[in-house]
């Protein structure tokens, strides 16, 4: 499946109603998000699936592929475009086998060795970070921009930078070779998610042009 990783929006539903989460997803898509990942760490399987189906209705309306964090079963059951697996999640090779050749499998990588392994096992793209400390509940370890650059140079699949990124601090990524940026709080916590996504999309396009 072809996809555009330029602005990869990752959700965080903490403290939100489902209705508000769906509104933010819609606004992010309107603002220029090119991929949306539904990330839910604490929902039951049924609740996660129900939310995934609701979010997919929104992303489908904007023709934006939906990625499910961690859960291959939810990705398959909801008809999502793909799944993203982290270092502590299902191995990339197994996720690829279960998802099949026509869906997206993304992986987290913090070292060149891990990036090459993930690519070999069938990852379609890599998420690398955290570039800056984050305010999400996910435990983060800071990744140097030099490491990000080395990973971009080592692999053939697209690489997206993640971790505390917003329109005012992305310039450090210039020349790194990234294919896109991931954003969570910069959009989720914005008073105007659509505008936040638009600014991030513009910045991501500039960074891609600097490769």
Q: Beta-strand level of the residues, as a percent range?
A: 15-25%
Q: Counting H and I runs of at least 4 residues, what is the number of helices?
A: 8
- Please give the share of residues in helix: 40-55%
User: How far is the N terminus from the C terminus?
Assistant: 24 Å
Shape: globular
Sheet with the most strands: spatial strand order: 1-2-3-4-5-6-7-8
The gyration radius over C-alpha positions equals 16 Å
Number of strands: 8
Low-confidence stretches at least 5 residues in length (pLDDT < 50)?
none
List the helices and strands in order.
Answer: EHEHEHEHEHEHEEHH
Class per helix and strand makeup: alpha/beta
Sheet with the most strands, sense and barrel status: 8 strands, parallel, barrel
- Average pLDDT works out at 96
Summarize the structure.
The chain is of the alpha/beta class and 211 residues long. Helix content is 41%, strand content 16%. Helix 1 (18-31) runs parallel beside helix 2 (45-61) and helix 2 crosses helix 3 (72-78).
Give an account of the 3D structure.
The protein has 211 residues and is of the alpha/beta class. Helices cover 41% and strands 16% of the residues. It has eight helices and eight strands. It has helices at residues 18-31, 45-61, 72-78, 92-99, 112-120, 145-154, 185-188, 193-209; strands spanning 7-10, 35-38, 66-69, 82-85, 104-108, 125-129, 159-162, 180-183. It has an eight-stranded parallel β-barrel, surrounded by seven helices. Helix 1 packs parallel to helix 2 (45-61), helix 1 (18-31) runs parallel beside helix 8 (193-209) and helix 2 (45-61) crosses helix 3 (72-78). It is globular and about 40 Å long. The model has no long low-confidence stretch (mean pLDDT 96).
